[in-house]
DNA sequence: ACCTGAACACCGTTCAAGT
DNA sequence: ACCTGAACACCGTTCAAGT
């Protein structure tokens, strides 16, 4: 039958998965199983194909990790987008870290060897911070101020997530102390 | 011959390596090959035994990583010990990160799944920071101030090492900006 | 008592063969 | 054109067998 024939010629095997499905599965696995649990095998199982099939859509695990990092940066950027004050911005940043600790660390403090997101994704994620830094410290100090703010918040949340606050005291209070003093420091002239 | 007999009974095979030698080799490999390059095989090669022999001295790769992290914290603590000002302390911290980037990140921003140094090693490393924070912000704010300082410095150096300052500008200036404003912020009352 | 070869389970990745 | 089984190199780890 001609119909079957041309059909099989045009579409010998229908797609059984897609790149977005693969990245979604990887994001989900990353958070539920941790970075070591994000294996090609596990991703393949999630999307319903065999591991070698993934290589039709991604070059390898490193590229997949990069795509996960970029998706995370996009989510972070839109999460911070509506912020209007430093404390609001910092709070959203911290909450994001608590909600998606593994992805947060993959993006903000990846170990050596991990892939780096392409520039445009980092730029989008840092736009809200730059905007608020500028309004606080002035345009001429916007970049320095944004870097100070991001560095502090990244370090704080990272230490929190890694359980590095082990000398007692109130971590919540330490956060408030930091936000308050930082806002004052950035506004200083 | 009785001599040979008792000798072989007491010391059937002489030790061909030691725990310090293994940890040293691991520290060196970590920095030269990166975390993925720190394999049991590579460590075994360095110290001149086969990989299975390492398990006579360490429980596994995770414990070895923990010992490396603890050795790094000890080195960091003695490096910062002599500091007398915030900028001096911060500078030493940053230099340490530049000299041993992989070990620095293993200790300060390990990914999930990596082992955590035992409390006493973290306490020793943070003592100099606590001391200077207290002198600046007063005893009642020492812990909060130390956490603010450590978070900022950790985040800054981590972002530097990961190439996360990609919006142009002068990174050196951003560091100076941060140290200056931070010192002022901590001293504020 | 320490060391080793052999083995196991599990990775990422490649590729020829299927449809 | 996509998918798969089989294979390869390389991990961490275990263990019986050597000395």
Strand fraction of chain A equals under 5%
Q: Please, what is the average pLDDT of chain A?
A: 93
Main beta sheet strand tally, sense and closure of chain A = none
**Largest interface by residue count?**
A-B, 53 and 53 residues
The number of strands of chain A is: 0
**Oligomer status:** homodimer
Structural class of chain A: mainly alpha
* Continuous helix count of chain A: 9
Distance between the termini of chain A: 81 Å
Name the shape of chain A in a single word: elongated
Helix content of chain A: 55-70%
Rg measurement of chain A, Å: 21 Å
- The residue ranges of chain A in which pLDDT falls below 50 over 5 or more consecutive positions are 1-10
Order of H and E elements of chain A: HHHHHHHHH
What does this entry look like structurally?
- 2 copies of one chain form a homodimer.
- Chain A is an all-alpha fold and 189 residues long.
- The first copy, chain A, is built from 9 helices and no strands.
- The longest helix of chain A is centred in the middle third of the chain and has 20 residues, at 61-80.
- The N and C termini of chain A lie far apart (81 Å).
- In chain A, 41% of the residues are buried.
- Chains A and B meet through helix 6, helix 7, helix 8 and helix 9 of A and helix 6, helix 7, helix 8 and helix 9 of B.
- The structure holds a DNA duplex (19 and 19 nucleotides).
């Amino acid at each position: 039958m001609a119909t079957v024939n041309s059909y099989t010629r045009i579409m010998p095997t229908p797609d059984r998965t897609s790149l977005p499905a693969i990245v979604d599965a990887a994001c989900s696995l990353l958070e539920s199983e941790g970075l070591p649990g994000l294996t090609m095998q596990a991703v393949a199982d999630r999307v319903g194909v065999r591991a070698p099939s993934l290589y039709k859509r991604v070059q390898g695990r490193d590229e997949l990790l990069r795509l996960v990092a970029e998706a995370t940066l996009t989510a972070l950027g839109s999460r911070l987008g509506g912020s209007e004050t430093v404390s609001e911005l910092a709070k959203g940043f911290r909450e994001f870290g608590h909600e998606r600790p593994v992805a947060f660390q993959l993006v903000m403090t990846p170990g050596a060897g991990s892939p780096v997101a392409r520039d445009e994704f980092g730029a989008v994620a840092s736009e809200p911070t730059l905007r608020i830094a500028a309004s606080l410290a002035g345009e001429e100090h916007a970049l320095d101020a944004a870097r100070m703010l991001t560095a502090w918040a990244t370090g704080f949340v990272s230490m929190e997530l890694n359980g590095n606050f082990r000398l007692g005291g109130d971590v919540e209070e330490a956060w408030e102390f930091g936000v308050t003093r930082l806002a004052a420091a950035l506004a200083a002239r």
